[in-house]
UniProtKB/TrEMBL annotation:
Probably acts as a heme chaperone, transferring heme to an unknown acceptor. Binds one molecule of heme per monomer, possibly covalently. Binds 1 [4Fe-4S] cluster. The cluster is coordinated with 3 cysteines and an exchangeable S-adenosyl-L-methionine. Signal peptide: none annotated. This is Heme chaperone HemW. Belongs to the anaerobic coproporphyrinogen-III oxidase family. HemW subfamily. Residues 1-238 form the Radical SAM core domain. GO terms for biological process: porphyrin-containing compound biosynthetic process. GO terms for molecular function: 4 iron, 4 sulfur cluster binding; coproporphyrinogen oxidase activity; metal ion binding. It is found in: Cytoplasm. It comes from the Bacteria. Keywords: 4Fe-4S, Chaperone, Cytoplasm, Heme, Iron, Iron-sulfur, Metal-binding, S-adenosyl-L-methionine.
Length: 382
């Protein structure tokens, strides 16, 4: 899995038809076409503003996430893609992903995406059980997921990701295995599997806090995770990152940038960037975002600009790199920081996490069991 020094672009669309009960992402329940259209205009203006500083960099990945980008009209999304191509040097074989909710994808949208160069579709399926989908507050049912997948294939998408979710209260192992089985049956090129996290600020958190909802025990969570990975491996998927598996050659090139200390520029409300050696974020307040765009200034939240020490950056390098099954190369660490890894970190850490943290062939990585306790091991480096 190679990553390049080319730039990745992330575009955030912070609208969803309805807020899911577990979601703490930066998104608002709104499907007013006028609001969505106004936001797309602002995004296009931001593309022009930001490209002035970044147009000299080749871009080899674009990720349009949210929120629900597929809520935007095909026309607006086409205009965003035109603006990207006019203002950034997007290389010929760039990976260009859009996230879509199965209830919001029409044939017209998929055809336009493909015509405008979007070549990867990430479907938020979550489950193939209608009861589970309803419990999560999703706006789609399992038929929408099947239909949108088949339509996407028919339209010409060969690179499709499916997000699926486990450790949901009330979801039995049988239900989870059925979801994994149906997902594998459709054979998307890529599968992301996430365990439900009860995050502050969500409807689920309120229920949990009031004792009306219980989190799935850790042991059950891990059983579900390993069961799914075993099924995916048997079906030919490679588990290449803690939460991701892909058919050979279909690893997410954009997400690999996040785990390989590569640079990306975030556009849109609240989008994060790591570019030009700095970390910064756009404002998460819509009125501030729109005002900055109207005044032709980058909508960066000045308080978000982080100048981490070299040691902190090393921690980020290790923390993100260990998410990949292949970990990171010690040469890459040296190339970035001009220091040997074991001059910075005590080699005894390998003894402490014997069998969990492995150093071999010039790479440092977690074993499969190491991934189960990744947070504890990664915390040693930050
Ligand atoms: S569709 Fe995704 S971003 Fe939107 S509310 Fe649901 S989980 Fe959050």
């Amino acid at each position: 899995m190679m990553t390049t020094n080319k730039l990745g672009l992330y575009l955030h669309v912070p609208f969803c038809a309805r807020k899911c009960r577990y979601c703490d992402f930066l998104s608002f329940g709104c499907s007013d076409s006028k609001v969505l259209s106004e936001y797309s205009q602002a995004l296009i203006r931001e593309i022009r503003i930001r490209s002035k500083d970044w147009c000299f960099r080749d871009v080899d990945t674009v990720y349009i996430g949210g929120g629900t980008p597929s809520l935007m009209s095909a026309w607006d999304m086409g205009k965003i893609m035109d603006a990207l191509r006019e203002n950034f040097n997007i290389v010929k074989d760039a990976e260009i992903t859009i996230e879509g909710n199965p209830a919001t994808l029409s044939d017209e949208k998929m055809e336009r995406y493909l015509r405008k160069g979007i070549n990867r579709l990430s479907l938020g399926v979550q489950s193939f059980e209608n009861d589970v989908l309803q419990y999560l507050g999703r706006i789609h049912n399992k038929n929408d997921a099947f239909t949108s997948f088949q339509r996407a294939k028919k339209a010409g998408f060969s690179n499709i990701n499916m997000d699926i979710m486990f450790a949901i209260p009330g979801q039995s192992m049988k239900m989870w295995k059925d979801t994994v089985r149906q997902c594998i049956f459709l054979k998307p090129a890529h599968i992301s599997l996430y365990s439900l996290q009860i995050e502050e600020g969500t409807e689920f958190y309120e229920l949990y806090k009031d004792g009306k909802m219980e989190a799935v025990p850790e042991i059950q969570d891990r059983e579900m995770y390993h069961q799914a990975l075993a099924m995916m491996k048997e079906a030919g998927y490679k588990h290449y990152e803690i939460s991701n598996a892909a058919l050979p050659g279909f690893e997410s090139r954009h997400n690999l940038k996040y785990w390989s200390y590569a640079e990306y520029l975030g556009l849109g409300l609240g989008a994060s960037s790591f570019a030009g050696g700095s970390r910064f974020k756009n404002t998460s307040r819509m009125h501030e975002y729109l005002t900055a765009i109207r005044e032709h200034v980058p909508p960066v939240d000045q308080e978000s600009i982080e100048n981490y020490s070299q040691r902190e950056e090393m921690g980020i390098f290790v923390f993100t790199g260990l998410r990949k099954a292949e970990g990171f190369s010690l040469d890459h660490f040296h190339h970035v920081f001009r220091k040997d890894f074991f001059d910075v970190y005590d080699e005894d850490i390998l003894k402490k996490y014997k069998g969990l943290l492995i150093c071999a062939d010039g790479r440092l990585y977690l074993s499969e069991h190491g991934m189960d306790v990744s947070n504890r091991i990664m915390a040693e480096f930050v």
